[in-house]
Write a structure and sequence with these properties.
The complex is a heterodimer of chains A (305) and B (102). Chain A has twelve helices and nine strands. With 305 residues, chain A is of the alpha/beta class. Chain A has a single domain, classed as Thiamin diphosphate (ThDP)-binding fold, Pyr/PP domains (Rossmann fold, 3-Layer(aba) Sandwich), CATH 3.40.50.970. In chain A, strands 3-1-4-5-7-6-8-9 form an eight-stranded mixed beta sheet, with helices on both faces. In chain A, strand 6, helix 7 and strand 7 form a beta-alpha-beta unit. The longest helix of chain A has 24 residues. The mean pLDDT of chain A is 97. Chain B is α+β, with helices and mostly antiparallel strands and 102 residues long. Chain B contains four helices and three strands, in the order E-E-H-H-H-E-H. The C terminus of chain B is likely disordered. The chains are: A alpha/beta (305), B alpha+beta (102). Chains A and B meet through helix 1, strand 2 and helix 9 of A and strand 1, helix 2 and helix 3 of B. Strand 2 of chain A pairs parallel with strand 1 of chain B, so a sheet runs across the interface. The complex binds thiamine diphosphate, iron/sulfur cluster (SF4) and magnesium ion (MG). Iron/sulfur cluster (SF4) binds next to helix 8 of chain A.
């Protein structure tokens, strides 16, 4: 049965009164990630807004066991947790590393790449708020070209972000997907599917951040949807090498065109000093990736053509 | 907290609601539901529940009618944005209006 708002479980693993900002997409995404895994998990989390969400000793706002691990080591600690579970003969638990973009694209990449190469049996979820938000919005390898951040305060970042899902796919792992907190049911389905697969699984979750990106916190869902409608985010999954567009990206591919990227950019204060040239460069980047995805979707066995 | 069965001393937290305190106190505005418009209340059966689905803080119940836990609702206003029936409006917290403050 496909998940919808009416049949989705009422059970919550994320408790009320946690420390995330109002309108935080990470909080929304994490709520549904834990629902999809039915709480049968051990989570490992490097320093990030998710550590803040988990709470300050001796209280936590999450009802599943969680290890706080140093910044570079989410995937390494997952490997250790798996070894521990094996030694104890414990079965039926999924080890899940959940890290931010700083902890994934940048500082945790070596450990993640190594764990994937070892075919470690775990699920890695990167929630991407496109910056080091917990420490005050420094730029990361995922911050977009032209975005103002704590470390690119005047001109904005001068480089395009790296495509982490493509990097992880190049490891030949059994499951890679992109998701977005504004499409919680698509996220739920992907996490549920990934939970049942063995081997290294990777999900990249787009996670709008109201204070970091400078937009009103009631706009979180709208910003996330605009990201998909303009092609900034493409929702897809790659299961055993087979590519498939999902959810809104699948519908856009079938019946329409992407909106101009500008419509997404103008809604956010972080792009207030972006230049026309940078907008054009970003639009070209979006168009090229969208074309690659359309070509792959056409060649895929799921294709309707 | 304390020593576990394994006898290693480790910092272990216990889950509780309100880890960050009463987060309802953060609110600048609060959601008001018009049950005459809400699809769940009108149909008097499980339906829609989009506000429940999209609430980042899990403060909306999946009940008939829906209820919002004002002790912990941070007032983000996502529910008001997402409601297809426009049944939720955000109202400024009294005493917190910027106009009132000066
Ligand atoms: C080795 C090390 N360097 C720096 C820090 C400080 N630090 C803690 S969280 C953080 C930012 C994390 O960014 P990201 O992974 O994107 O998560 P977010 O806060 O954005 O959710 C930094 C730099 C640290 N804890 N350890
Ligand atoms: S800084 Fe951004 S990602 Fe971090 S808790 Fe606040 S809204 Fe969420
Ligand atoms: Mg981040």
């Amino acid at each position: 049965m496909k998940a919808n708002a009416v049949n989705l479980t009422e059970k919550e693993y994320l408790l009320q009164g946690n420390r995330t900002c109002p309108g935080c997409a990470l909080s929304l995404a994490y709520r549904h990630i834990l629902k999809a895994l039915e709480g049968q998990v051990i989570v490992t989390v490097p320093p990030s807004c998710l550590t803040v969400l988990h709470g300050m000793y001796p209280i936590t706002s999450v009802t599943v066991p969680c290890v706080n691990t140093p910044f570079a080591s989410a995937a390494a600690s997952a490997t250790g947790l798996l070894a521990g579970l094996k030694a104890l003969g414990r079965e039926g638990l999924t080890v899940v590393a959940v890290a931010g973009d700083g902890g994934t694209h940048d500082i945790g990449l070596q450990a993640l790449s190594a764990a994937a190469e070892r075919q470690t049996d775990f699920l890695y979820i990167c929630y991407d708020n496109e910056g080091y938000m917990n420490t005050g919005n420094q730029r990361s390898g995922s911050t977009p070209l032209g975005a103002i951040s704590g470390t690119t305060p005047i001109l904005g970042k001068q480089q395009i972000p790296k495509d982490i899902a493509a990097i992880m796919e190049a490891h030949g792992i059994p499951y890679v997907a992109t998701a977005n907190a504004s499409y919680p049911l698509d996220l739920y389905e992907k996490v549920k599917k990934a939970g049942a697969i063995r081997g290294t699984r990777f999900i990249h979750v787009f996670s709008p951040c109201p204070p970091g990106w400078s937009f009103p916190f009631n706009n979180t869902i709208i910003i996330g949807k605009l990201a998909v409608e303009t092609g900034w985010v493409i929702l897809y999954e790659v299961e055993d090498g087979v590519f498939r567009l999902t959810s809104a990206s699948e519908s856009i591919a079938k019946k329409g065109d992407l909106k101009p990227l500008r419509e997404y950019l103008v809604e956010q204060g972080r792009f207030k000093s972006i230049t026309e040239q940078q907008i054009e460069a970003l639009q070209r980047w979006v168009n090229a990736r969208w074309k690659r995805c359309l070509d792959r979707a056409d060649k895929s066995p799921h294709s309707v053509h | 907290m304390g020593t576990r069965d394994c006898r290693h001393i480790c910092g272990e937290s216990s889950p509780a609601i309100g880890e960050a305190g009463k987060t309802g106190e953060w609110r600048e505005s609060f959601p008001v539901i018009d049950l005459k418009k809400c699809v769940v209340a009108k149909q008097n059966k499980p339906a829609c529940f989009l506000c429940w689905l999209y609430c980042p803080d899990a403060v909306i119940t999946k009940t008939i009618p829906i209820q919002i836990d004002m002790e912990y609702c941070k007032g983000c206003g996502i529910c008001a944005q997402i409601c297809p029936a426009h049944a939720i409006t955000m109202v400024h917290e009294q005493g917190l209006c910027l106009d009132d403050m000066d």
